[in-house]
């Protein structure tokens, strides 16, 4: 089971809303930090928030209690219990997440992603590396194929269908599915399923 990383009470607000990273097309770079070097939760690359607290609940001065008085075990420094003097728990101070309860890293406060996998790639329902449909954390089945039937095991994991080329379809052994589309959704003429021409690959 994964541990939960403490987060500040409010999300980090970027300096301007139009800051776009040219590589990712969002305000965050590939590592999840904005132009000012802060994550969407407000901590910097060293793990400290603007108020001097670390993501592990340690202040730059070495104090092991977060801004709300909770330590890494979620015990409050004043009460010595899981509840602070106002009757709130550590989790009551966590930031607002998206409408489905997931942060920018794709995980909820319990460390589970939308497909039910924890940060270690173990599915919560099956307690294995595969979900009930037979797909792993990367969305590949035991043979290395995605749910659409394309071979995508870039790591060439031993025991998988190593005689397939990356991007080839399980049923045709070519770049195209039985319906005539490659994994990017285009036919051999560069046209998608709606009839829009995107160009040949």
- Specify the number of helices: 0
Question: Can you give the helix content as a percent range?
Answer: under 10%
> Gyration radius, to the nearest Å?
22 Å
How much of the residues is beta strand, in percent?
Answer: under 5%
Low-pLDDT ranges:
1-17
Structural class computed from helices and strand pairing: little secondary structure
Number of strands: 0
- Termini separation: 43 Å
Shape verdict: elongated
Instruction: Write down the overall mean pLDDT.
Output: 78
**Oligomer type:** single chain
Main pleated sheet: none
Describe this structure in words.
- Helices cover 0% and strands 0% of the residues.
- It is mostly loops.
Please give a handful of descriptors for the protein shown.
201 residues, little secondary structure, 0% helix, 0% strand
Question: TL;DR?
Answer:
The protein is largely without helices or strands.
Explain the layout of strands and helices.
Layout: no helix or strand
């Amino acid at each position: 089971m994964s541990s939960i990383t403490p987060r500040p009470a409010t999300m980090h607000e970027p300096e301007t809303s139009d800051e776009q990273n040219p590589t990712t097309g969002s305000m965050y770079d590939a590592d999840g930090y904005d132009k000012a070097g802060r994550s969407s939760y407000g901590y910097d690359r060293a793990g400290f928030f603007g108020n001097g607290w670390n993501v592990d609940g340690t202040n730059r001065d070495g104090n092991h209690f977060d801004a709300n008085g909770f330590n890494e075990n979620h015990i409050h420094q004043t009460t010595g219990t899981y509840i602070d003097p106002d009757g709130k728990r550590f989790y009551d101070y966590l930031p607002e997440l998206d409408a489905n309860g997931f942060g920018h890293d794709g995980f909820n406060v319990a460390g589970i992603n939308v497909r039910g996998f924890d940060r270690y790639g173990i599915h919560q329902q099956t307690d294995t590396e595969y979900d009930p449909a037979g797909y792993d954390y990367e969305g590949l089945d035991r043979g290395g194929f995605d749910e659409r039937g394309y071979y995508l095991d870039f790591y060439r994991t031993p025991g998988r269908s190593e005689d397939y080329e990356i991007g080839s379809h399980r049923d045709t052994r070519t770049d195209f599915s039985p319906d005539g589309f490659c994994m990017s959704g285009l036919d051999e003429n560069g046209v998608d399923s709606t009839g829009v021409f995107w160009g040949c690959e």
